[in-house]
Design goal:
heterodimer; A: Helicase, Ruva Protein, domain 3; 2 domains; B: alpha+beta; Glutaredoxin; 8-stranded mixed β-sheet; 6 helices
Chain lengths: 120, 172
């Protein structure tokens, strides 16, 4: 009987650990995708500035409130603009950025095909 | 065919690189928020600076008054610079100054106010900086001019004489 008791307690503690780890992981993941606005070239996750520390607290708070990752991004986008997100949104200003790799890929393909075609 | 193709690619790569650098290097890489946004005041529930009573934003910003929400801290040097202008604004009856004490401790902040004077009608304290995030602020000092529960103008950095004149013009 005692054994079962202890067993149950251990299982419970382990489960709570998992829950906590999950939260920390998603908080870090979100913070990594955010640009620290006052420190150049650093993410919020990497930075220890006052702004970043507060922002991490806010992210934590929002996770506790049950907001999803996407909701937190859009909340911060509303407050600080698109600049805070590392992942640039597809719009008129970023067409070039997103399409350039595809264009280069196609051009490379064209060169290869052309070479084979001319060899034959 | 080959001899024509290769120089063409080189020229193309050169042009693309040139355009990217020409455009990219010109852009300032610093975050510059827009200062002229008509946004609703973000609701908050914060502790008062003097005691631990809780202050709700809806009760502060009544409709037909102008408010200047000023984020400050005693450890922030530019806040000392802007302080004299806030003191000048204090004499204006049309505007109320709300201070948001950012990541500060009570002792330092109150000696700051004792030394330089207290321009604020009300001070709320933001110990962990989370309320400032709700306001879209990213540093101290920062000020928001509020009218009818809307932010009509935002001042980033210390308020100077020009800003003071602008505020006085807007609230006339």
């Amino acid at each position: 009987m005692k054994f079962i008791h202890i067993f149950l307690i251990v299982i419970n503690i382990l489960n709570f650990n998992l829950l906590k780890a999950d939260e920390i992981k998603s908080e870090n993941e979100i913070a990594k995708n955010l640009r620290c606005l006052i420190c150049q070239g650093q993410s919020v996750h990497d930075s220890d500035s006052e702004f970043a520390i507060s922002l991490k607290l806010v992210i934590n708070e929002k996770i506790q409130q049950g907001m999803s990752e996407e909701e937190i991004y859009s909340f911060l986008k509303m407050k600080y603009g698109e600049w805070i997100l590392y992942d640039p949104v597809f719009n008129r200003n970023t067409y070039f950025l997103w399409l350039l790799p595809i264009l280069i890929f196609l051009a490379g393909g064209a060169i290869i095909i052309k070479k084979f075609y001319y060899k034959k | 065919m080959k001899s024509k193709f290769i120089p063409l690619i080189f020229i193309l790569i050169f042009i693309i690189t040139f355009v990217i650098f020409y455009k990219g290097l010109k852009n300032p890489n610093i975050y510059t928020p827009s200062t002229n946004l008509e946004k609703e005041v973000p609701p908050f529930e914060l502790k008062s600076f003097e005691n631990d009573s809780i202050i709700i934003s809806e009760k502060i910003f009544k409709n037909n008054d102008y408010y200047l929400m000023n984020i400050w801290a005693s450890w922030c040097i530019p806040c000392k610079v802007e302080h004299e202008f806030l003191m000048k604004l204090k004499n204006n009856e049309k505007i109320k100054l709300i201070g948001l004490n950012y990541k500060d401790n009570f002792k330092n902040a109150s000696s700051f106010l004792n030394d330089l004077g207290n321009p604020y009608d009300l001070i709320v304290s933001d110990r962990d900086g989370t309320a400032s995030i709700e306001w879209g602020a990213y540093g101290v000092p920062e000020s928001f001019l509020i009218y009818q529960s809307k932010i009509i103008k935002r001042f980033i950095g210390p308020i100077n004489n020009e800003d003071l004149l602008e505020i006085q013009k807007l609230i006339r």
